[in-house]
Amino acid sequence: MIIMITGAGGFIGSNLANALSRLGHRIVICDNVDERKLNYLARCNIEDIIWPEEAANFVGKYHPDVVIHLGATTDTMCTNPREILDNNYKNTIKMFLTCKYHSRFIYASSAATYGDGKYGFHDRCDDGYLSRLCPLNLYGWSKHLADRKIIKSTTPPDSCMGLKFFNVYGPNEDHKGNMRSMIKKIYDDLKNNGYTSLFNENVYRDFIHVDDCVSIIMWLIDRTDYSGIMNVGTGNAASMDHVARIIAEKVGIHPDQAIKKIDMPDNLKGRYQYFTNAELSSLKNMGYPKSLMSIEEGIDKYIKHIENQ
After folding, report:
1. Catalytic residue flag (residue 62)
2. Is 139 a catalytic residue?
3. Under CATH, what is the fold of the domain 2-169+208-235+277-293?
4. Domain ranges of the chain
């Protein structure tokens, strides 16, 4: 297959491109690549590289078998509406419409669309449910608006799947800086300072290893009979304290000495998800055949990767 991946030099994108390349697929990289991103893609057999502004024309002309749209502004603290809506909403809709009737379209949505979780974390596609969701920041809104527009515009024989990624962690996320996963932040804190700072509030998140995300996307490529929205999480929320204690033990720090509690800064109050937990009915109903890594298994795998680099 010819598969175009936007954001292919990023976190999920680079892991996916390398995995698909190993299976012999022809991978078209769509990204503003730099040296770091090319290092991420060192094991990928690249068919072509195109810039993001060329993406729609490329798809319209060459009709790749699959377009996986992961390119986005991922800064959840972004306060520039034009930037984030152009990148996350308008570009996603443009790619969806360009792929319509020609290419399987899989795009990245987010658990941020669920807001404070008042209405649960159900990957339902009916607009009655979606219209009740109220994201807590511009990032969440940009993804939510794209979901609603695409669901309303999807008609047979469209082949489109939106993936609501929960808290993804794993290799190739260092370039994300302050937006890297809490698992990587905690690891870096413990290695550099001997402790990590966590909010006084109880925070639980559904963490999923990037390898599981890649496996789900690869499985969905051939499921052209299904369109809609799917949660990509484990269905098992873990507390930040629990995660920090696991990592502390892995790096040789006593868990009781690993955590320093701090107050939540004012700029996060009212904009922060205290709890996320994916409901996995779509994944289960479609018959996904693999088990997902537990938080303990995923952290162990990730730390081994970091320390063996």
Report:
1. no
2. yes
3. Rossmann fold (3.40.50)
4. 2-169+208-235+277-293
